[in-house]
Amino acid sequence: MSAPQNPFPANRHLLNRRNFLGQTVSGLSSIAFSAMLAEQHLLAAEKEPRLTVGGKAPIRPEIDPGKPFAPRDAHFPAAAKNVIVIFCSGACSHLDTFDYKPSLVKMHGKPMPGGDKLVTFQGQQGNLTQSPWKFKPRGESGKMISDLVPHLGELADDICFLHSIKGKTNTHGPGENYMSTGFTLDGFPSMGAWTSYALGSENQDLPSYVAIPDPRGTPQASVNNWGPGFLPAAFQGTDFNAAQPIRNLDRPASINAKTDRATRSFLQRLNEQHLARFPGDSELAARISSYELAARMQLSVPEISDLSQESASTLHMYGIDDSENQLKAAYAKNCLLARRLIEKGVRFVQLFNGAYQTGGEGVSNWDGHKKIKDQYSIHGPVLDQPTAALIKDLKQRGLLEDTLVVWCTEFGRMPTFQKGASGRDHNPEGFTCWLAGAGVKAPFTYGATDEFGYKAVDNVVTVHDFHATILHLLGLDHERLTFYHNGLERRLTDVEGTVVKEILA
Which domain of life is it from (predicted)? Predict the structure, then answer.
């Protein structure tokens, strides 16, 4: 009888204890040796330049840890120096604001062709439903804009509309992530963080990147909208608004100003001595920088948040003096704060209109599922006058020449009403965003949804295309602005995105 064959002939040496231990020792030694070579940048692979997916050499900014917000050069001449993003949380309906569809009026109350038994986010759909608000031609361009936003309608000639934005998800949290970071998952850097990382700031007494939450609270994806992801933490947005100042900025009541200054001075001397002993300690330099910025902000933030310095006519233009609509007045203060931040050289301001649900669906944001007429009649006036005033104010002060204003939302809404309801369900297949200010054509309309506003069909613009265009206007090549993370050259636009050159002035 023949001996049974070894089922593991190639690994026979591992069955011998002495050989197994010998292989283990040499394996660990090899790992340690490779690590040492990597630390000294002597590995052959590291001499090969890492390229982006598009085959281009990445451009990573040279950042001094002690001065992370120092202004940095763009990749090429920029049209815009600063950005204000106005984010309507809850998915504002394009069909009730900026995307006029005569066929929706003509087919009102009838089934959508090809939409039999269509099921979307919350269930089955009913019939096609025209907007409860009339659309009228606005400005010299005659752009059709809804009566829901008449003040913004007056600015039709200053706006570049993109009616063919297409998303990836019909869920609010991932949708906010996608619009703010280019990814539906948590943990990726926001658009503002990428901008701050690339360009720094013109003002060293204020954060490079400020997020202004809605008076009603934060959006559903919360800090993901302005988070740094895997970028250095210094580049996350600093969140505060006109009603809620930066937390923990004031000194404790038990410590007087003289003691506070003396303590900071003593700490500064200790830090300087430590840096002199360890000049390569970048983490300490970054920490010192953040503390010094916080100290400067104790003076700069209260000053910039003091709206009493503004004229009565300016407050009235924004609607801050509207005693009958306190929510509108509160949002108006945030809009004025955004202008003041831009005026002081803050690079990126993210202004939110709408918050995570408080008090029920559609109460605190644009999520109009059940009774869109009642819900949007509240949200429209809150958004309209203050946002329009912000653009007018920027323009009359000459700031719009260097500032790009972005209006966006996480996705659009259906041309039908939901079955058994009087509101519209989620729709990422086609919706509207718009741009105004530095570097874009105006008045201008680009792309289109189908005759009912359901799907983007003409010159489709993905969110990655949208982001690529915004970075381009800032003088940044979206394919080359990267951060090496977990073995990948990460970027805002992932492995996609094309600049929409047709809208560039």
Answer: Bacteria
